[in-house]
Predict the structure.
Amino acid sequence: MKPFPGKPVPGKPVPTTLQVTLPWLLAASCPGRPAGAAPAPEPRARCCSGRGARRQTMGKLTALTLLGISLALLGQRFVRIREKMNASREVEPVEPQNCHLIEELENGSEDIDILPTGLAFISTGLKYPGMPNFAPDEPGRIFLMDLKEQTPKAQALKISDGFDKALFNPHGISTFIKEDGTVYLYVVNHPHMESTVEIFKFEEQQRSLIHLKTIKHELLKSLNDIVVVGPEQFYATRDRYFTNYFMILEQFLDLHWTYVVFYSPSEVKVVAKGFSCANGITISLDRKYIYVADVADKNIHVMEKHENWDLTQLKVIQLGTLVDNLSVDPTTGDILAGCHPNAMKLLNYNPEDPPGSEVVRIENALSDEQRVSTVYANNGSVLQGSSVASIYDRKMLIGTVFHRALYCAL
Ligand SMILES: *[C@@H]1O[C@H](CO)[C@@H](O)[C@H](O)[C@H]1NC(C)=O
Ligand SMILES: *[C@@H]1O[C@H](CO)[C@@H](O)[C@H](O)[C@H]1NC(C)=O
Ligand SMILES: [Ca+2]
Ligand SMILES: [Ca+2]
């Protein structure tokens, strides 16, 4: 990309472009007058003879100025967007020894949730506007993998009748275990590209999901991920404010209009807002804090959960990679984030230069001495478009938006 005045330095805020360009344009539009100076008095003699011509010239100059400003703003936005997407970032490999692709999963594995017993739920087959998708034109599925087994295999769960399975398009998932041990699976679903939350009961013996309920609500739009916090209470992230063509403008202007919603049968409310693109959401081991990934701002918000379910921001952990989904290591409490090292490669998919994968671990997220390390990184030769990583007993599963899934013994 050709630089223009004020090309931003990586890591520096971009307004430089505007700061450099605007005064320059303003100065150019008023020849002879330094930018910001008071207008000089018009010489009387010249004003009357050439007023019409001068007015025309001024009109053109104004139009040119406006055009210039618009182009500069546009250019600035493009540079900013490329920067935000890490468009020029290449991946340094970090690959644990014992990793292999999971045979049964070929068409994405958007989200993963592992039960304390080692049973992993994996949502697959998501079709989402703007994302590459190579899945055959068939409904999405939920797979189960038993991580206690020596060589775990993924097996598709049967899904009961009672909702439109043909339109099943699963996105974020979250499990909830009732006191009596019953396991519920909550799934963000996008039938016809709308958003619903489907609640299933998991039947371990039958390896099946019984559909119990579909939740729809005015505030539950453009849903991405979900974390269940009670029998019928959950937090969910909205990743776009607009659901129509305005979403392009939204991304272009980088409006921070997305939010986190709290849902319960008696109350639905926005509990945190101001995210550029709120994405993965999960809860700390002690269940006092909620972690929210903002994929576009490349950070994780640590939020404190209050009695009335409101969230307040405690801190923001800035990363150099686009954070998609979050999970918590059940033994250490560390946050694991499935990340997109370069979003431009993800959105402009090119098999010759595919998007890579990256998983980062954040230790001591609540203290000032947090530590961020890379657990896995690959340039796309093995795994493309990682969106989530989840750990159980030194075994890690890495899921992707549209590609394969990886199993690693750590
Ligand atoms: C994982 O990432 C995908 C991609 O955006 C998202 O839709 C899903 O909700 C996320 N799930 C998790 C683990 O939070
Ligand atoms: C990715 O890395 C591998 C080695 O790890 C290398 O052989 C391959 O050429 C790289 N691919 C791209 C697209 O850079
Ligand atoms: Ca999830
Ligand atoms: Ca996500």
